[in-house]
Amino acid sequence: MNSQNLGELASDQKIQNVFHAFGYSIPVGKDGRRLWPTKFKRAMGQRMRSGELSIGEVQKTCQVSNKTAYSWRKGGSRKSPHKPKRTQEPAPAFAEIKVQRDDPIVPPAPPQIVFKRAGCEVLLPPTFPIDQLARLISAFERDP
To answer: Model pTM greater than 0.85?
Structure first.
């Protein structure tokens, strides 16, 4: 028997009378069981969570067990295990990422030809023509 939808009552479970609680009309089956609609249970749960009603008031007025009143306040229905439970999405996780910037790679300076004579230093590129280097050396070697 599906107590959530009165249109689907079994043929032997016709409504005998109605139970009234907190402005709601709750159908009572042939066997004396009250058929608590989901809308009623949600309303009672919300009113208990807001403090408008106490668990004791709901328990006494609806003639339900302490366990049933607490489950209404919690908001879950234990009678529908086939319904999938809502899973909470994991809270987003944030991580700080630090990027280390390396100093730019500076290509090494090309080797130079260093020519020192008579307190003078001349830096020449490595591609300096050899014949010109020989002339330079001979020019410094000559006496003035």
So the answer is: no
